[in-house]
Write a structure and sequence with these properties.
The protein is of the alpha/beta class. It has two domains: 130 residues, Rossmann fold, CATH 3.40.50; 79 residues, Thiamin pyrophosphokinase, catalytic domain (Rossmann fold). Strands 1, 2, 3, 4, 5, 6, 7, 8, 9, 10, 11 and 12 form a twelve-stranded mixed beta sheet that branches. A hairpin with a 3-residue loop joins β9 and β10. The longest helix is centred in the middle third of the chain and has 17 residues.
Length: 225
């Protein structure tokens, strides 16, 4: 099962939800309204709901009469709570949307939350996605990926610790047994024509796949094409 966790970030940053037809959607605070406005019935709604209006809250409570609202003052963010909720569905993949394009502290918090839960559940793939990018964490070992015309550029950064023994095969720019120190910008904007292999022996690597703004269609453009 795929679970899509949707927060209430700017609508302009949201991906095309039709890509995950048949997935289970979880609304995070105002993200619940985002889903409802797109005709998507979420399987759960999570958060303290301090970002919704009174009328929007009534819509949410009508859908979830037994809704357990989180306290406004808490140690976990709403997105963290939603990620925990997502794991109740035993997903093979969790997509997180609606957390970019607004407050950068919310974005960084979500990125760190995804990193933490990826470490806890290594057999589940967690991915942060907006209309132009997708981000995921790679653990040491070998990873095979395929070119996607929507995401032409592929970049790699260390996360939390230095990446060692880093190799790229069948990429436009191949490397062998390299080290990616924290702060390095050397491994950005690589490209892939077909199938590539990523290997590294130590560390945690964040992979970002991106498109140029002028080379992709936003969700609103796709709907009107």
């Amino acid at each position: 099962m795929i679970v899509v966790v949707t927060a209430g970030g700017p609508a302009s940053e949201l991906p095309d939800f039709s890509e995950w037809a048949g997935a289970a959607f979880i609304g995070v605070d105002a993200g619940t309204i985002v889903l409802l406005d797109r005709g998507i019935r979420p399987v759960a709604a999570v958060g303290d709901f301090d970002s919704v209006t009174g009328s929007e809250m009534k819509r949410i409570e009508a859908l979830f009469p037994s809704l357990d609202r989180a306290a406004s003052e808490k140690d976990e963010t709403d997105t963290e709570l939603a990620l925990v909720k997502a794991m109740e569905f035993s997903p093979v993949q969790v997509i997180v949307t609606g957390v970019t394009g607004g407050r950068l502290d919310h974005y960084m918090s979500s990125l760190h939350a995804i990193y933490q839960i990826q470490q806890k559940f290594p057999d589940t793939e967690f991915m942060l996605v907006n209309w132009q990018n997708r981000i995921r964490f790679l653990s040491p070992g070998s990873h095979r990926i395929w070119a996607n015309e929507k995401y032409r550029y592929i970049s790699f950064y260390p996360f939390a610790e230095t990446v060692e023994g880093f190799s790229l095969t069948h990429f436009k720019y191949e490397v062998d047994n390299e080290t990616i120190p924290f702060g390095s910008t050397r491994f950005i904007s690589n490209e892939l024509d077909a199938e590539g292999i990523i290997k590294f022996s130590k560390g945690s690597c964040v992979m970002i796949e991106s498109s140029d703004a002028g080379n992709g269609l936003k969700q609103s453009d796709e709907m009107n094409a």
